[in-house]
Amino acid sequence: MTQPQREALFDILSLSIYADAHISLVEEDLIQSAFVAKGWKSEYPKSLFIEESFARAREVAESDDMVMDYLTERASSFTSKTAQAEVLGVVKDLLARDGMTPDENEFFNLLIQAMPKAK
């Protein structure tokens, strides 16, 4: 995974925890684990990126149109079927950890729409 893809994945994960308007500690811990698992290969400090990613997610989560636009833009970093399937798997695992709510299911379906090759 390239660094721009890592950043896009983390932005998607950050937004995913706002899908049900309930941020659990499990979700936050899982995102932190994803950062460790996927690595970070940038001069830009990881902690600053995380803060900014959560700030972007909070802003975007206020509007359904903004959510879809953001997902589409971030999903464009993943051009292959394999990459898109990997992202969908990571996001689904995160959302399913504390049980998927209807809002989280809706969010996941929007992400699937933004990643048509993974279907």
- How much β-strand is present in the residues? under 5%
Give helix % range. over 70%
End-to-end span in angstroms?
Answer: 20 Å
Count of DSSP E strands? 0
Reported for the largest beta sheet, the result is:
none
SS element count, helices: 6
SSE order: HHHHHH
* Morphology: globular
| Uncertain runs | none
Structural Rg: 13 Å
Which structural category do the helix and sheet elements fall into?
Answer: mainly alpha
Taken together, the total number of domains comes to: 1
Mean of residue pLDDT?
A: 86
How would you concisely characterize the structure shown here?
By secondary structure, the chain is mostly helical.
